[in-house]
Structures are given as C-alpha cells and as structure tokens.
Amino acid sequence: MKLFKFLLVLIFLLCFEGQSNASVFKTLKHPVEENPPVQLNFSYTQGFEDIMVVGTFEILVVGDILNHITGKADIRFISSELGIHINIQIDKDFALPPLQHKCLEWYSDQSKDTCRINFPIKLNKPDPDLSKYEPIRIFDIDFDGDDEIIIGTFGGNRGYQKYQIYELEKIDNVYEAIPTISFQGNAEIDIEQKTLTSRVSSDVCTSTVITYQSDGTGFKVMKKVERDYFDKDNPNQCLERVSKDLIINNDQLSSDEWEEYKRINKAKKKNALEPSPYLFPDNTENIYKTREDIYRDRKEKEKLCDRNRLDAEKVGKQFSDQDYELCLISSKQEWQK
What we know:
Number of domains: 3
Number of helices: 6
Strand order of the largest sheet: 5-4-3-2-7
C-alpha cells in the first residue's frame, strides 16, 4: 500500500514538472491581419540597473525589414526606488530581436497553415552600439547627467532603424516620458564634443545632416545642412542651405518664408541666391551656391592669372611660366573642392 501511494505521488510530481516546463505558444494563421490580436509578453532579464522594463507586443507585420516581426507595443518602466511608473506606447514598426527570422517559412509559403511563437519573450541587456537594433535602451545620451529612454523602431531612411529619445521629467511629483529628438542608427556620437550627428539622405541632392550639441541640460541644434532642389524656378539646380546656432523647432524656413526669400532675391537674377537680412538673423549662416557660381569664380581667377602674367611689373614681381601654371592649378583646385 505504501509503495502504491509513493508511486502515485511520484507520477503526480512528474506530471507537474512536465506541465511547468511545457512550452507556451501563440499561433499565427494566414492572413496575418485576420488573426485575433496576437499579443506577446516580454521583459528584460537584468537589462537595466534601477528600472524594471516589461511590456506587451502585438504582431502587425511578419517578414518585415531584415526578417523581423514588427508591430505595436505597450511598454512599462517601473522603479519603486526612483518613484517611476511610466507607460510608453508605440503604434508600429516595433520589433523584438528574439523574433527575428521567426515564421519566415509560414510568411513565404501560404500553404503552411500555422506558425507557433514561444512566449513570454526574455530580452538580454541591450548592446550599446547604436548601429545594432535594440528596442529599448536607457542611458544618458544627451550628457545632462540623467538617463533617458531611447526606443528603437524600423522603417527609417535607407533601411536604418529609428530612435526616439524620451526625457524623464518630474511633473507634479509624477515622472513623465517627454519625447525630444529622434535620430537614425547611422548617427555619430562625439563624447568629447558632446554632439550627436544624424544623417538622412534620399538621393545625390536630397539630404539633411543635423548636429545636436549638449548644453548641459539636453541637446540643442547646433548646425543643419540641407541639400535639395529648393528653387522651384530652377528645379534642376541642387542647392545647399547651412544654418548654425539654431533653436530647436525654429531651425528652418517655412514655405511662406521661402517664397518671400525668392521674391526678394529674384531681381538679382542669380543662380546662387544670397541670404536676406530680413529673414535671417546675424547668427545664422545660409549658403546657396551652385556649380555655375564656382565655375564663374574659377574663370575670374584664371583671368587674374593672365593679368599678372601680362602686367608683372604692376603686381610687383616677375610672373614666370611656372608661376602661371601654378596659378592655373590653384584655380582648378578651387573648382574641384
């Protein structure tokens, strides 16, 4: 009898152990948009020192960029010690690295009926390299002495991931996550200069490079370089606009300002428009320079070389053949810059 009871207890324990170790699945069926909401719980295992991060991920797209499963997320940041309890919601393009390459056969072959995904999903400590996608990072990115939350998503320019910075601000004794600047995974951070440079480009003449610099309280726009076909009257001319010492959210011309700018300068009949003091303060440098202007400058320098050679006494020195050649070479180098 005792042996029988012992065997019953042993069987029960083995069954319980099997259930506790059993895998839990979420199942996808074709087409993905007709599935009931497929939600997966995720959390970090010792990912951040003082803040616990947990969330819910809902699948929207399978087989997305770089074979990720992307969707929306509800992320909770909790710290009893710091008094933080924050929710951040992401509407789309959010991804969890452990799901990369999952369900690819199901995605590419409509005849495959279902795809199973293990959950809950455990995430490891994020890689500090911004060129590598991480859904969540927490560190002092803007050199103000306080940590920020950085949320990563896909769908950036030229396939790069996008990052949004959230500043943790205490408002009425309650912490809130305030979105500030966003940047791409190809951004460069200079620790010594305390700058972050973000680059976005679409083609040979459509690009924006923004350099942010920390003033000790957060990032401010220090310089913005834009290349585009700004002048509607000359749609094939690639122009460059450089602005320095800018104030965030006030760092570029509106469409009305640009039309007014062109109206003021139209009478000058130049390919390179000169900045108007009416529109631009002294601390802003705006450069509109075309290849026609550079070519014209080169020709002027070549004429100067000719004049120096023909009138050597007037310029105060004998202009040898070698001097003349060096002068022409210098003008060509200016053209090639």
